[in-house]
Amino acid sequence: MTTVQPGSGSMVRRILLGSQLRRLREAKGISREDAGYTIRASESKISRMELGRVSFKERDVTDLLSLYGVEDAAERDALVTLVREANQSGWWHSFSDAMPNWFQTYVGLEEASALIRLYEVQFVPGLLQTEGYMRALMTLNRPSLDRSEVDRRISVRMNRQKLVADKEGPRLWAIVDEAALRRPVGGPAVMRAQIQHLIEAADMPNVILQVMPFRFGGHAAESGAFTILRFPEQDLPDVVYLEQLTSALYLDKRDDVDQYLQVMERLSVDSQTPASSVELLTEMLKES
Fold first, then answer.
1. What is the DSSP letter of 3?
2. What count of Cα atoms within 13 Å lies in the side-chain half-sphere of residue 153?
3. Among residues 226, 195, 223, 222, which one has the least CA distance to residue 211?
4. Which residue has the higher pLDDT, 247 or 208?
5. Alpha carbon of 59 to those of 43, 84, 167: distances in Å?
6. Where in the chain are the domains?
7. CATH number for the domain formed by residue range(s) 91-287
């Protein structure tokens, strides 16, 4: 059995529980169709359960455990406990009106991660934005939003940033293109405050910040921004997150993830070192 670390989000618990149910089913040679029949559900419902994309009912899980021949009381109790934990709501559920469903999935994964590696080309990463930068960006992107809606969205982002401030939280390794730092958002005062914030964030023990400078020219991340999430549970694969205008992609196939890991490794080598990145940010601050 895999132990779920304290603080792991419900999203990861669902994925972990689903993967364990899948392994138990496959070990017995039972089809998804037969498993679905046992709990009065469709084959597609079993597939969604095994991918962690739906909530779990205790009765369904106990029925499946019986079908899969799991009779050990301790093992059954551990999985049933995982069901209860997986169905708990995270803090972000109270902000469902302030973010789309596909982004709630990301927030749940981010909350449970051990390492967040990202490349951003157009804007400062959300986890490192100042409130002034956030407000200017949201007003620019969605001018029809009223102040209360903007405030709710900012609250979501500020809550996410608590991860970075928490010494027990995940490590953040951010590579930011110089273009994002040179792009004026909110005016000179907002950008000066944002650059200063990045300099301070770079000094945090769980943050690595690198800048990909203009002078390097073309580089490995020709496809644009992406995020790679790694979890403390060894059973869970890394997840690559690709955000689009009205949706997002979550990649966890080994071949796909490996390609993005290779790009991230290239970026980390080709970008300014963390120390040189702070020097560049300091120069930009003096220029502003």
1. P
2. 21
3. 195
4. 208
5. 17, 12, 38
6. 10-86, 91-287
7. 3.30.870
Largest CA distance in the chain: 69
- Chain center to CA of 9: 11
Q: Are residues 86 and 10 in contact, defined by beta-carbon separation less than 8 angstroms?
A: yes
Report the distance separating Cα 141 and Cα 122, nearest Å.
13
| 191: number of Cβ within 10 Å | 23
Domain 10-86 belongs to what architecture?
Orthogonal Bundle (1.10)
51-98 pLDDT, tens digit per residue, is 887 889 999 999 999 999 999 998 999 888 888 877 777 777 678 778
Considering only 51-65, 96-110, 128-142, 158-172, which range has the smallest mean pLDDT?
A: 96-110
Residue type, 107: V
Helix (H) or strand (E) holding 118: strand 115-120
Does the pTM of the predicted model rise above 0.85?
no
pLDDT, one tens digit per residue, over 253-265 is: 889 999 999 999 9
10 close to 90: Cβ distance less than 8 angstroms: yes
Q: What is the mean pLDDT of residues 214-230?
A: 87
